[in-house]
Amino acid sequence: WREPMMSALGRRVAARLLDVWALVVLLYLFVPIAVIVLFSFNRPVGARSYEWNEFALDAWTDPFKDPKLRDAFFTSLEVAAIATAISCVLGTLVAIAAVKYRFRGRGARNAVLVLPLTMPEIVLGFSLLLWFSTLGVSRGVVTIVIAHVMFCVSYVATTVKARVRGFDWVLEDAAMDIGAGPVTTFRLVTLPMIA
Fold this sequence. Notes:
The chain has 8 helices and no strands. With 195 residues, the protein is mainly alpha-helical.
């Protein structure tokens, strides 16, 4: 009778240890964010101040006062818009091709498609930085967009592939039978079904 009791006790201890571990991980992730938010209410002395000086709302009353921060913010929005548009187009085309057509190298294509999802972003970013540096490409908005597109295409393709997998491709054939061209069929039949 003691063995089932010990295993129940062991399960409770394991559950408590798991709770403690989850709390430690969450603290590790959120404490730095809380410190940054706290120090946003600090009036720094100099360019970098790691000591609390006095409470101030300077960073919150005019967040775009610093031109470098303002430019970085608008550059981020520009990169996000361009990378999203390109990723949506490329990811959708990759997903349709992956589901609709059979060709050699499907396993390799799936591995390449899943690789950015499984690789830490910092590794992908650093690899691209080294690659651009080796090729002598000047780094700027274009290289940032390329890096973001490489990362985002996998998400779009995986999501759209799941949606496209259940398509009835006969609808495309029917549209072409009544005279629609490939572009019109894609625009009026395939794209609305994906959406």
